[in-house]
Amino acid sequence: MLKSMRSISFIYTSAEFTTTFVLPLQLLAFVVQSRASYTKLSQTDAFV
């Protein structure tokens, strides 16, 4: 019983960690990628 409770709390903690750190990092990486591709597009437009 105690072991299952501990694993549940561990799962909850890892999920909390994921939502707190991993999701914002993924969002940041997505924004950086989209901005990089946007600058590439604008650079090619400037060259053309």
Outline the fold blueprint.
Layout: H1 2-47
Unreliable runs, pLDDT <50, ≥5 residues?
none
**Helix percentage range:** over 70%
Reported for the largest beta sheet, the result is:
none
Instruction: State the end-to-end distance.
Output: 68 Å
Question: So what's the overall shape?
Answer: rod-shaped
Strand content: under 5%
- What's the average pLDDT? 83
Question: How many helical elements?
Answer: 1
H-E string: H
Supply the helix-strand structural class. mainly alpha
The number of distinct structural domains comes to: 1
Oligomer: single chain
Evaluate the radius of gyration: 20 Å
What is the total tally of β strands? 0
Description:
It is a single chain. The protein has 48 residues and is mostly helical. The protein has one domain (1-48). It contains 1 helix and no strands. The protein has one helix spanning 2-47. The radius of gyration is 20 Å and the shape is rod-shaped. 0% of the residues are buried.
Primary descriptors:
1 helix; mainly alpha; rod-shaped; 48 residues
Short structural summary:
With 48 residues, the protein is mainly alpha-helical. Helix content is 96%, strand content 0%. The chain has one domain.
